[in-house]
Specification:
Blueprint lengths: L9 E5 L7 H11 L3 E5 L2 H6 L2 H7 L13 H15 L3 E6 L5 H4 L9 H25 L2 E11 L13 H23 L2 E7 L13 H11 L7 H12 L10 E4 L10 H8 L1
Parallel strand pairs: 1-2, 1-3, 3-4, 4-5, 5-6
Helix pairs in contact: 1-9, 4-6, 6-7
Amino acid sequence: MGNNLLKGKKGIIFGALDEKSIAWRTALKAYDEGAQLVLTNAPVALRMGEINKLAETCGNAPVIPADVTSMDDLKNLFTKAMEHFGGKVDFVLHSIGMSLNVRKGKHYTEMDYLWNQKTLDISAMSLHRVLRTAWDMDAISDWGSVVALTYIAAQRVFPDYNEMADAKALLESVTRSFGYHYGVRNKVRINTISQSPTKTTAGSGVKGFDGFISYAEKMSPLGNASADDCANYCITLFSDLTKFVTMQNLFHDGGFSFTGVTQAVIEQMEK
């Protein structure tokens, strides 16, 4: 049972693909905490995933397809969401990322720039489009909350994370810039969560992922945070307990981000 942290609140969850995804786990937690939900993803992802099962579990939440590169799709999404809720949205989770260069095995030094534009468009500028649509429609309640998922590769080099590192850096910049304007106008707060490497369907596609998740576990004093742990953190940011937290990149990684080295890593290197 939840603690009713989101009782009476209404939210849109972007990016729930399957039971492994952070968006999926967050939707379950939000519903358990009393929220009403609308679920959305790209049409192709809806065909590939199992989102209807999630929708049923979350009180038969509507599933509304939306291509995040289409302003028309996003306007339709917010229009239908507000019709369903009978009012404005209180929170939004942006859990969206896609890299064609990674999928196609292109090294960072040899990236295809047209693919790169698509990566930046879907993985980062999509947040700007979501916020712009909500801004134009005045769709988010005063003191509402928007959370986007990012990764520490925006600040540090992880070679195989490839162009997604650039995308996450842009995503975090949009968070700060739009966070200022939305904060001034409507007290809407916008933050990113920089999560531990997590065994999601998307994350597992990164080269060398299994080895890196083991390394991160050894480098994190608390160990890697799970998808469910990240969902819990998202709930706190959607709730009224964090009303004055905005424009922040919040590390949720068991201490990895501020650890230089651990005894476990030293011992591994000495073997």
